[in-house]
Amino acid sequence: MYAPQQERIERLQKSLRQQKIDGLLVSQPDNRRYLSGYTAPDHGIQETAGYLLIPASGNPILLTDSRFTLQAEAEAPLYTVETYTKGMLQAVETLCHSLEVQTLAFESEYFLYSTFQKLEKMAASRELTLKATSNLIEQFRAIKDPQELELLRRSQALNEKVFQAVYQTIEPGMTEREIALALELTMGEMGAEGPSFETIVAFGTNAAKPHAVPTDRVLEPGDLVLIDMGLILNGYCSDMTRTFVAGKPDQTFIERHRVVRQAMLAGIGAIRAGVTGVEVDRAARQVLNDAGYGDAFGHGLGHGVGIAVHEDPRLSPRGTNTLETGMVVTVEPGLYLADWGGIRLENMVIVQEDGAEVINTDTTSLDL
Amino acid sequence: MYAPQQERIERLQKSLRQQKIDGLLVSQPDNRRYLSGYTAPDHGIQETAGYLLIPASGNPILLTDSRFTLQAEAEAPLYTVETYTKGMLQAVETLCHSLEVQTLAFESEYFLYSTFQKLEKMAASRELTLKATSNLIEQFRAIKDPQELELLRRSQALNEKVFQAVYQTIEPGMTEREIALALELTMGEMGAEGPSFETIVAFGTNAAKPHAVPTDRVLEPGDLVLIDMGLILNGYCSDMTRTFVAGKPDQTFIERHRVVRQAMLAGIGAIRAGVTGVEVDRAARQVLNDAGYGDAFGHGLGHGVGIAVHEDPRLSPRGTNTLETGMVVTVEPGLYLADWGGIRLENMVIVQEDGAEVINTDTTSLDL
Fold it and tell me: In chain A, which residue's Cα lies nearest the Cα of B334?
């Protein structure tokens, strides 16, 4: 059985001791799942399914309310589950006292200012020192172990299978919404837990919005079709984009598609352990710049994928990450022209010592 | 055409002037949509689709990045759309300068501590005063105008229609997941934008978890079935729960179901403008207490529903809300017994001057 939580907790506890932190409150749902196995999602940041309290040494605690007690106990056997009835903060106060926590850290990137205000008040009355951490568990999550890599390969393989099944059925007369629904349905039928984000299906000029939401627009012969889709399988996400034409592509589409494809290949070609996200982004962006589409590519080149569909590292002009072996990233250049439409291509790759392993095998439209 | 944003902005601006706030940064996605019509969702709080900057008087501004510019311009015609390329904070800094904002407020309940840290740094260098607001726009949202009430009625009517369509097909041999998928599919086919939360389908002891996630458990004759479902139609949510038995219910189920139904009726009976959420919760809880199930009901009685499926007001032992005419709330008592299962019943009601209008018409299992 694959139960990596013990090792993850120990690695984190070592880091806490080095930083002189006595306890860390984990609020970020993906971090919570990563460290505990507890899968309950937050319904928005204001409706938490619980917190972990990880002491610098000793047994970790999972704090939740009565809606989730049974699930937490079943899914997180390494944790002592504490059910709070008077709010999380009161439970944390009691635990900090009994565990002799003097420096309590919290995750600044998934902690509401309003919760901080309450924590601050409690800390003042208890002479507790608060410490805001940044990107602590995310750093560990960015580097996948071999089992995680296999789960990501399977997730993307299923994603491609779903894409192919629906791609074969696409024809003029269908709407963006219908195709998106068919994709999400097929994901479910083929065993996915669900989509990893809202499926994007955009025809023609609608594809000029990188984050288009499917509409009732009807597919006409000759329209370009952009599909950006991902699913969750065994807790791990996939993400892929293809752009093609309903019918025969014209010369403009073919040329622009080639530029985006060259940009993708240049990005993938630049990937290996030790290079920065900025450098990889630049390699792909240069291709678009050289072809005169620099202004038509407004977003970053890619992002890490794992338990979350968007996680570290980032490939972008403003990124701060250096790639390491075992990271998994998307490479997704695009060009977006309001009066014409958009093209984006996206594959997922594993960063290796001296290059990149492309996870995708689907070649739809890539051979244009 | 129903375009209520102008009035909403003016009402908010009046409140800002009263509080001596020169500008409010709106980060909460439902508040953003409520005030602007801009529908892009956040993919988690860390991936914002933009902010509104509402000055105490004058034209409001929508800040977003290039992925969303076209959508923002199309959906929010009352707003000046500013596309930021170097991050939201830099754009806010420039705008505060040009608009002569000296006191800038932000929404403490949807503002990350890490973003606050950056804002604080910027404010210090600009001699800007920051002010954390709480529940400012949510207060306005809690009271629905007549058009919103109609949208909520339609959303719940469709939700009931979807429930009935699938309910007719339920039979032993089906799994929780299959039924949940069928429900969500039918929502899409019948025109919903999507589910308003992850559909809950739980058989037998699985129903002892109030927030059960559908599993591959197979329905056996005599199992109880709890379905908690909602959808989004025209941006407005619905939410309903029914619990029934596959086949003939035994006496225990019938008795417990009656208790929960009596609790629901008691809750609904207590609703009118002027009573508190605590009082309504107590009226329902008393019925469960009297029947010996006080400990089996661990969650609050209900919540507001609107653009968000969970919003103000709250009906709970620890709530602080007083009901007002035009509020819309769920009434959803339940009892949960780990070794047996759970029963929850949930209707949505509109608070009126002297009572409650029950939106639901579905009587499945309610006449047991």
Answer: A67
Q: E strands, A32-166, where?
A: 51-55, 61-64, 80-83, 103-107, 129-133
**Residues B143-358, CATH architecture:** Alpha-Beta Complex (3.90)
Chain A residues with beta carbon closer than 8 angstroms to that of B71: 209, 211-213
User: Can you tell me which residue has the tokens 């940064």?
Assistant: B25
CB contacts, 8 Å: B112 with chain A = 108-113
For A15-42, how does the pLDDT look when each residue is reduced to its tens digit (9 = 90+)?
Answer: 999 999 999 999 999 999 999 999 998 8
pLDDT of residue A2: 58
Domain spans of chain B, in order of start? 5-141, 143-358
Residue A26 vs residues A81, B45, B113: alpha-carbon distances, Å: 14, 16, 14
CB-based contact A132 B109, cutoff 8 Å: no
Would the pTM of this model clear 0.90, i.e. be above it? no
The domain over range A5-141 is classified in CATH as 3.40.350.10 = yes
- Candidate from B67, B111, B197 with C-beta closest to A298: B67
Q: What is residue B367's predicted lDDT score, i.e. its pLDDT? A: 67
Q: For residue B106, which residues of chain A lie inside 8 Å, CB to CB?
A: 113
Beta bridge partners of A355: A352
Q: Helix (H, G, I), strand (E, B), or coil: what is residue A284?
A: helix
A302 closest CA partner among A332, A328, A323: A332
Distance from CA of A289 to the nearest CA of B (A): 17
The pLDDT tens digits for B178-235 are: 999 999 999 999 999 999 999 999 999 999 988 898 999 999 999 999 999 999 999 9
Q: Determine if the peptide bond prior to A77 is cis (ω within 30°).
A: no
Which is it for strands B347-352 and B328-331: parallel, antiparallel or unpaired?
Answer: antiparallel
Among the partner-chain residues A209, A298, A309, the one whose CB lies closest to the CB of B71 is: A209
| Secondary structure class of B254 (helix, strand, coil) | helix
Q: Which residues are paired to A195 by β-bridges?
A: A231
- B328 band by pLDDT with thresholds 50, 70 and 90: very high
Interface test with A, best of B112, B113, B307 (most A CBs within 10 A): B113
